[in-house]
């Protein structure tokens, strides 16, 4: 990507100094051009990295964060200002939050070879829990909590940043659509995330436990594993108790930390609000054997957990049925090759009718492409097909409807569509009666036939309706009547 130069003007924003350069994006301070009043708070522009060596996750994460920032509000998230055109220069402009990251406080403690006081840990932990509770009240889960993604304001409140891996109950899960398990930062990832379950607010509580553990001990409870096997160990293994590493750690703090780190989500605090209350009232914490422990769980107990975890099926916390009813999701499966204008036209007309009888429905336009080859630019390929979906949808009346565009990578088209529909609680899937390039053969089910047979939702199969034939329909009717 091209680095923005100070003084450059991007869609009415004047670029100032670069304030951060990360693996997935760069951040620049910005202000409005002269003649336009600033919004009353400092602003920062976030530009995703999209070079030839960068994966499509950067672009998907950008889309997720844009979606999340516009859906969330309150003092615990940056205020959204504007977004750039994906086809030209993707960027997000948001509030620049004045404060320090929790990571900087950890780095200071490491440099001084000292640990923060338990009271400070509790205060910071409570601020994080309150911010997370605000997020959960808005039907969102951060999914990537870590010290670098927590800003502490001067007044003590926490602000959560970097929503590129987040999940929202009212929006399709773009990252789950990528069909890539274990999405998140390995050191802070909850066991259910390791096996591919997203959308459980208790995953954020696990991440808070990891943060508190590191604050209390200077170590990460499960290290920073780089393999799937290393990640899966947290499904059954306990970390060393904080008091084994730091004898001065209060039992009440260890009790809360290990409760958050429980492999079973149901055994963690009932909510972030409960955790915030305990951290604000440590004298009220009921300390049991777990809080007094100074040795790891015996290997026999670990073995029993390992056996149980081998057959454990994690399930996300159930969503209230009215949540799905408030924002039904219509999924349009749009083919990108071996198709015709007639098929694309028929799909668009069917989707138009479906949205017309479902006020407030959300439209998810989905296409499935094969994983890119070694010589292909994954980011460019993703952008190309996303733009094709947008062009297809331009003929729809989307007033009053939310719409999103998803490019899935999979060799098995039907499996990808089915997995997307299930993961996103799709109400209705619309697709062509013989599309996506699989030849109709008696011994091989077509993609539409397989989807219709296995889909967890209603399926509308659409036959071709050539637009030219429709244009001549009045004349054909006149000739028939004569």
TrEMBL record:
Keywords linked to the UniProt accession: Kinase, Transferase
Matching InterPro entries: Kinase-like_dom_sf (IPR011009), Prot_kinase_dom (IPR000719), Rossmann-like_a/b/a_fold (IPR014729), Ser/Thr_Kinases-Pseudokinases (IPR051681), UspA (IPR006016)
Annotated GO MF terms: ATP binding; protein serine/threonine kinase activity
Keyword flag Oxidoreductase: no
Domain Protein kinase stretches: 13-284
Pfam families, sorted: Pkinase, Usp
SUPFAM superfamilies from the UniProt entry: Adenine nucleotide alpha hydrolases-like, Protein kinase-like (PK-like)
Name of the protein in its database record: Protein kinase
Organism whose genome encodes this protein: Ramlibacter ginsenosidimutans
């Amino acid at each position: 990507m091209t680095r923005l130069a100070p003084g450059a003007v991007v869609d009415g924003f004047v670029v100032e100094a670069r304030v951060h350069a990360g693996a997935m994006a760069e951040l620049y301070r910005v202000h409005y051009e002269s003649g336009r009043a600033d919004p009353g708070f400092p602003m920062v522009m976030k530009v995703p990295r999209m070079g030839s060596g960068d994966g499509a996750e950067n672009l998907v994460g950008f889309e997720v964060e844009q979606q999340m920032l516009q859906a969330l509000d309150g003092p615990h998230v940056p205020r959204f200002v504007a977004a750039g055109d994906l086809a030209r220069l993707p960027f997000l402009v948001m509030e620049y939050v004045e404060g320090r990251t929790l990571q900087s406080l950890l780095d200071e403690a490491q440099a001084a070879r000292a640990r923060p006081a338990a009271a400070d840990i509790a205060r910071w932990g409570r601020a994080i829990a309150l911010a997370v509770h605000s997020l959960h009240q808005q039907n969102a889960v951060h999914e990537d909590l870590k010290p670098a993604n927590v800003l502490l304001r001067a007044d003590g409140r926490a602000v959560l940043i970097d929503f590129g891996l987040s999940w929202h109950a009212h929006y399709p899960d773009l990252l789950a659509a990528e069909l890539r398990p274990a999405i998140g930062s390995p050191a802070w990832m909850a066991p259910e995330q390791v096996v591919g379950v997203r959308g459980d607010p208790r995953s954020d509580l696990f991440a808070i436990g990891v943060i508190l553990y590191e604050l209390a001990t200077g170590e990460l409870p499960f290290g920073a594993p780089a393999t799937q096997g290393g990640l899966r160990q947290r499904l059954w293994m306990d970390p060393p108790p904080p008091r084994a590493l730091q004898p001065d750690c209060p039992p009440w703090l260890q009790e809360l930390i290990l409760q958050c780190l429980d492999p079973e989500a149901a055994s963690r605090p009932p909510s972030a609000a409960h955790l915030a209350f305990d951290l604000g009232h440590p004298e009220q914490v009921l300390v049991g054997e777990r809080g007094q422990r100074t040795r790891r769980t015996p290997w026999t107990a670990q073995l029993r957990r390992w056996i149980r975890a081998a057959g454990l099926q994690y399930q996300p916390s159930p969503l209230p049925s009215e949540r799905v009813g408030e924002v039904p999701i219509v999924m349009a499966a749009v083919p990108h090759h071996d198709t015709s204008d007639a098929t694309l036209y028929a799909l668009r007309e069917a989707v138009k009718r479906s949205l017309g009888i479902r006020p407030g429905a959300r439209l998810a336009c989905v296409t499935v492409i094969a994983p890119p080859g070694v010589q292909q630019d994954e980011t460019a390929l993703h952008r190309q097909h996303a733009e094709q979906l947008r062009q297809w949808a331009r003929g729809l009346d989307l007033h009053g409807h939310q719409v999103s565009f998803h490019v899935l990578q999979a060799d098995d088209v039907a499996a990808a569509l089915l997995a997307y529909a299930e993961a996103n609680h799709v109400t209705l899937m619309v697709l062509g009666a013989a599309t996506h390039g699989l030849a109709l053969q008696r011994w091989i089910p077509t993609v539409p036939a397989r989807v219709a047979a296995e889909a967890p939702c209603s399926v509308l199969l659409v036959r071709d309706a050539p637009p030219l034939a429709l244009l001549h329909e009045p004349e054909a009717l006149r000739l028939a009547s004569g």
